[in-house]
Amino acid sequence: MAAPHHQEVSGFGPLLRQHRTTAGLSQEALAERAGLSTRAVSDLERGVKTRPHPATMRLLADALDLDLGQRAELAAASRPSATVPSPSSPQELAALPVPHASIVGRTQELVTACDLLRSGNVRLLTLTGPGGVGKTRLALELAQTTASDYSSGAAFVELAPIANPDLVPAAIAGALGIREDRDRSLIESIRERLCTDRLLLVLDNCEHLLAGVQPLVANLLGSAPELTVLATSRGPLRLRHEQLLPVPPLALPGRGHAPQVESLAAIPAIDLFVQRAQAVAPDFALTRANAGDVAEICARLDGLPLAIELAAVRIRSLSPASLVALLGARLRLLTTGPHDAPARQRTLRAAIEWSHDLLSSEHQALMRRLAVFAGGFTLESAAAVSKGDDLFATLDGIEALVDGGLLTRVDGIDGQPRYGMLETVREFALEELAASDDATIVHAAHARRQIALVTEAGAHLH
Question: What phi and psi values does residue 457 have, to the nearest 5 degrees?
Answer without folding.
Answer: -65, -40
